[in-house]
Design brief:
Layout lengths: L6 H44 L4 E3 L2 E2 L6 E4 L2 E4 L6 E4 L3 E7 L6 E4 L9 E8 L6 E6 L13 E9 L9 E4 L2 E14 L6 E4 L9 E10 L4 E6 L16 E3 L6 E8 L5 E6 L4 E11 L7
Parallel strand pairs: 6-7
Antiparallel strand pairs: 1-4, 2-3, 3-6, 4-5, 8-9, 8-10, 11-12, 12-19, 13-18, 14-17, 14-19, 15-16, 15-18
Length: 292
């Protein structure tokens, strides 16, 4: 093959120029990627700073009298507020020992127990990015599977007498029992106040949703149902009470939200010793770490 004078040299120069342009473009793209990565990291950090208690979706559900429950798709910041976790699609777990993936067990340790509260956690391993669900009797320190380091409590459920889940309905932070539960029946709390345990989660504080009935057996009487967080009240008049009953045929009836302690208790105090109180638990509000 014969080249015209200067042709080969010209072609090489053109190739060199093209390579230089490509190298410059690659360098620019690399810089842009690094800048975008830094921006993404900064934005993620800003999101976590702005919403450390971030949680959406992740609704819990069970048919009741079943060993299986489900968690809807959603996402949350981990309990330390250091990372975001995302559950791309709904997952179902059973009461068996934990194993990764939908349809497998969710229990962190031991065997499932009868009539016991369990807390549900979204968990993540940072090396692979896998997100899963775990249940534990601990509200703050579940036994984490190997390599899983991030967690966020997203709710609580109770087993029945056969170690199956009791049916409830969740909407956001509100959990309603499918069947109302009577937790205090014809009780006289007395003037010094008495703590009553409700059928709401233990290990965390929640706002119990109650239906309260108050009968006076022989004389007019006042009742106040309060959180154990406040000083035990002295109940004497309508200005420091929840309900009033003039006699046994005229009960006081009301609905109320009352904050519990971590033992699922509220306090009831009356103005006399002749009352008869009924506490019926409809459900509870669980903020699930939004405020911590």
């Amino acid at each position: 093959m014969v080249y015209a004078p200067g042709t080969l040299e010209t072609d090489q120069k053109k190739q060199n120029m093209a390579l230089q342009q490509q190298a410059s473009a690659i360098a620019t793209a690399t810089t842009d990627i690094a800048t975008n990565t830094a921006s993404i990291s900064a934005n993620t950090a800003n999101i976590l700073v702005l919403t450390p208690g971030h949680l959406f979706g992740l609704t819990l559900s069970t048919a009741g009298s079943s060993a299986t429950f489900s968690v809807a798709a959603g996402g949350a910041a981990d309990s330390a507020g250091s990372s975001l976790m995302s559950l791309a699609s709904a997952i179902s777990k059973t009461t068996s020992a934990w194993a990764v993936g939908t349809g497998n067990g969710g229990l962190d340790t031991g065997s499932i127990a009868n009539s016991t509260w369990y807390h549900v956690f979204l968990i993540k391993r940072t090396d692979t990015g896998v997100v899963d669900v775990l249940v534990s009797t601990s509200a703050s320190s579940p036994t984490m599977p190997t390599s899983y380091t991030l967690k966020r409590r997203i709710g609580a459920m109770k087993t029945n007498g056969s170690a199956q889940w009791t049916k409830f309905i969740q909407l956001g932070d509100e959990f309603l029992w499918d069947t109302i539960v009577n937790d205090a029946n014809a009780q006289n709390p007395g003037t010094s106040g008495t703590l009553y345990t409700l059928t709401v989660p233990t290990g965390v504080q929640v706002s119990a949703q109650l239906s309260i009935l108050w009968f006076n057996v022989s004389a007019s009487n006042y009742l106040f149902v309060s959180s154990p967080d406040i000083t035990a009240p002295s109940v004497t008049t309508a200005t420091d009470s929840t309900l009033y009953s003039v006699d046994s045929t005229h009960p006081g009836v009301t609905g109320a939200y009352v904050r519990t302690n971590t033992s699922a208790q509220v306090r009831a105090t009356s103005s006399g010793s002749n009352g008869s109180m009924y506490l019926n638990t409809i459900g509870w509000i669980d903020r699930r770490g939004r405020d911590v």
